[in-house]
Design goal:
Length: 607
Amino acid sequence: MQGWNGYFLKVDLTKSSATAEPYTEDLALNFLGGRGFAIKILWDTLKPGTDSLSPENKLIFATGPLTGIGLPNSGKLVIASKSPLTGGYGDGNSGSWAAVEIRKAGYDALVIEGKASKPVILHVKDRTWEFLDAVDLWGKSSFEVEDQLRAKYSKLAGIISIGPAGENLVKFATVVSQKGRSGGRPGMGAVMGSKNLKAVVVEGTQPIQLAYPDEMKRLAIDGYKELLAKPLFSFWKRQGTMSTVEWCQENSCLPTFNYKQGVFDKAEGINGFTMEKMKVSNRGCPQCNMTCGNVVKDSEGKDSELDYENVVMLGSNIGVGDLSQVATLNRLADEFSFDAISLGNAIGFAMEASEKGLISENIGWGDFEAIKALIYDIAYRRGLGAVLAEGVRSAAAAIGKGSSDWAMHVKGLEISAYDCHIAPGMALAYGTSAIGAHHKDAWVITWEQKAGREKYDEEKVDHVIQTQLLRGGTFEALTVCRFPHGSLGFELEWYTKYLRASTGKIFSMEELNQIGDRILTLIRAFWVREYGSKWNRDLDVPPMRWFKEPLTEGPLKGAVLDLEKYNAMLDIYYQKRGWSKNGVPKRETLEKLGLADVASQLSSSSV
Ligand code: PTT
Ligand code: SF4
């Protein structure tokens, strides 16, 4: 095989052993890589009903045929597992030198199972591996771990670690790389912690075998040049994703006060222009010339890397309007290895519960000191922190009194930073996302603004599906960053050319779409298999707040989603995906996608 290394490194932490195992070309051609490899491995090898935090669960670091090759934005890594937060498929996409080094070490994925008897570091160097004692690192932040390991290993070593949130099995703990790339929102850091795995260090020295290396070199250089010439390039370098704060405020979809409102009176204090005044540098993933991580000095004079999502969830959603304070909360999230989205969502939930008198703790909107204290309590699972550490779905179940209406999640994953009181397309994207409420698979809200926010129609369903297949399927499988295409308009033809130069094979966009469909359908089957008799279509419906409580502020005051119309869109969505009225892939759909074996494993009662 060219383009793929053809090997996974399978690691058993219980036995302190590892094996380089070849996989078939068939797997590569049908699932491509990244998310495709991850779901296929989980489907085939994870016993249904496995406890996400048990040694039997698998933690997968997966790359694709375009990862690490030196073409634009190719330093990306899919981190996947059965999620402890949702109980379904979970993954995240993080920029890391580990993505590049895994490939150079001769693998396409690391598949880690078992549990070490005490904290360890897994160090992989080409075809050698060792398990190093990490007892002294246990309890340390992801930044301290990165510093210590960076000093020990080569400058470009791939280092992934967890902080105390991962160690203490906070259900929305992530894994962190390069002090600011944080991935695996649905608790991939907790899975790593459950295995007593504090860090993974990967070093590779082998060239990746490509079908047409000279052509790839030329295409890569041309690609970087093309990106530089894109009209939006310089503004992107200035603000990255932060320009979205202003856009969302203008369009009434900026999550504010636990998604009660879509506008924030202090939005200017946390927007991209304010950030520009504080910015000290750009940071980013490997092999990228459009680095979008905005580094600012926080309220304590320390570096913090800001993106749209973390700023909003730790800003307007919890009433903080001072960006240097938001930056401090964000740095804490990175150090502890929390997902900043779920963290902000959980804090917003606690603030609302406090406001309504449902909990004894007093934590007011925007109370910076109280928020900081709560973050420590969540990381160390103390008091209210222990309840929130389980995620808002579980916190609402514990608190009761109607709080599930405003526990802002889908399938247990906290909603990311778009208010959908009047965005049925975006609401559908959240409802049907592969991992729970995340925008990564279908960020359709800017398109929806142009198409007509209030409409519930087939065009929206089509757009959600097309976006999911491209972003959630193709980009997650290739595995490269989707921002060049999504944010600067880097044409899709580049990727088919890169694939040919890498693998020697010609993939049309239609074929890539079909692979995307196969991956997303298998992910859906995984959810249904794991949920068993608890599976039902209501799991694809966003929280009731958006349907029952109209906005009371801003230009779209009075806006609210219509449940009947949302369900009608969901019906069309299922029908177009070839899924039953209960959201389960039909046998003929599975067969068409080459997944006939999957059909027999799905419980017929769920269909
Ligand atoms: C992603 C999610 C996002 S999505 C953001 S900001 W975004 C938040 N960032 C966090 C952070 O930072 N620290 C922290 N402790 N928690 C955070 N949680 C949030 O995590 C990220 C970029 C971004 S920035 C986005 S949209 C794009 N996402 C991609 C994707 O999903 N796939 C893909 N092929 N390319 C992508 N490119 C972009 O990557 P998760 P990163 Mg993150 C400080 O990982 O789990 O997917 O959650 O990975 O390396 O930081 O890159 O406005
Ligand atoms: Fe990473 Fe941003 Fe570059 Fe994408 S554009 S590869 S997220 S730094």
